[in-house]
Design a protein that fits this description.
Radius of gyration: 20 Å
Number of helices: 6
Strand content: 5-15%
Largest sheet: 2 strands, parallel
Shape: elongated
Number of strands: 4
Structural class: alpha+beta
Distance between the termini: 34 Å
Number of domains: 2
Length: 135
């Protein structure tokens, strides 16, 4: 998803003259997994680490010098800013983190089956918030 989003930003920049406005101030936003993606995009703007993957999918502005085995870019994929709502930044524990936050709400709603609540309880117990760990 990160490479595809970077390719989309490059596509916009490549076609900047054909569109109204400018691509100089691209903002990226997302919620939950999209928030995590927007953080990854904002943090990795113009990183050459992605050039091989961008080249492989034919992203605009990426060239490969076979003699030197190097990639270069004539466009950038950095963004002006991001707004990340509830960004998932700990993908290894995302499910447990959600249940840690929403287990009480699920209990109060009372619309979940016993099996669903048992799973929620199990995931909630598996999560240790970062603030507790670092305390």
């Amino acid at each position: 998803m990160v490479v595809d989003t970077k390719a989309a930003i490059r596509y916009l920049r490549y076609n900047d003259a054909a569109m109204p406005g400018t691509t100089e101030r691209i903002l990226i936003t997302g919620t939950s997994g999209g928030g995590g993606l927007s953080v990854a995009i904002a943090a990795s703007g113009n990183s050459p680490d992605y050039y091989p993957y961008l080249y492989e999918i034919g992203a605009a502005g990426i060239t490969y010098n076979a003699r030197r085995h190097t990639y270069s870019s004539t466009l950038n994929d950095g963004v002006f800013g991001t707004v990340a709502y509830c960004a998932i930044t700990d993908l290894n524990h995302a499910d447990a983190a959600y249940e840690w936050m929403y287990n009480v709400t699920r209990t109060e709603l009372g619309t979940y089956s016993a099996e669903q609540m048992a799973a929620s309880d199990w995931l909630k117990a598996d999560y240790v918030p970062i603030s507790i760990v670092s305390a």
